[in-house]
Amino acid sequence: MERENVLDDVVYPLSKKYEIIQWITLSILIFLVPMIVPQLLSTLFGTNSWIATHSQYVVGVIVNTVLITTAINVKGFKQIAGLITLPSISAIGSGLIFKSASIFTVYMIPAIWAGNFLFVYLYRKLFVKNKTNYILTSIISILSKAAVIYVFFRLLALLLTIPNPMFTALNLSMGINQIVTATIASIIGFGIYQGYKKES
How far apart, in whole angstroms, are the C-alpha atoms of residue 145 and residue 46? Predict the structure, then answer.
């Protein structure tokens, strides 16, 4: 089946032992980042600092970087699905990123998962399997992910009454912030790809 073949292609094949170590490491990182980073930024820079109040940028860059690493070098649907679903569960469960708006982000979980899966799948399909240019792959993957998440949010906003301050924050988080954080992550991800390439 083509989907399975695409999800089994990697840049740098690892032994079974190192595949497991890689997956566990990425899983721990992607799960803990939404819980730890906002608190860490508040402690280091102050609760009211710009970086602490906009921790989604830092968290988003790290999470998207892990997703690109997943696209490049994690095998198998189950392993990839686990890494795709963990960050939103962690972020909403901890309530540290979206705070009072977290209740509305619960409804966004299916769209976030779909956007993340499409993001990873397109990197895998275009870049790893079809050898499409990395920059073009990144543009297509980033815009596709952002479109899925943002369109779902706008449909949700038509069905639910979201208070204006929360709507404004979520509109930014589910829209332009997705593009910004994924773009920065794609630059970091290219460096990670180069690292894998040297090892292969």
Answer: 32
82 and 67 Cβ atoms separated by less than 8 Å: no
Query: CB under 8 Å to 138, separation ≥6 — which residues?
Result: 123, 183, 186, 189
Is residue 103 scored above 70 in pLDDT? no
Residues 157-166: contacts with CB under 8 Å, at least 24 apart: 160/104, 160/107, 162/104, 166/100, 166/101, 166/104
Closest-CA residue to 169 (of 89, 54, 52): 54
Q: Are 168 and 51 in contact (CB under 8 A)?
A: no
Dihedral sign, Cα of residue 98, residue 114, residue 118, residue 32:
positive
- Distance, CA of 77 to CA of 75 (rounded, Å): 7
Expressed as residue numbers, the domain containing 188 is 2-199
Domain count, the chain: 1
pLDDT in tens, 138-181: 999 999 999 999 999 899 888 877 777 777 877 888 889 999 99
Six-digit token pair at 8?
A: 């089994």
Cα 23 from chain centroid? 15
- 95 backbone φψ class: left, alpha, beta (φ>0; ψ -120 to 50): left
Q: What is the pTM of this model?
A: 0.88
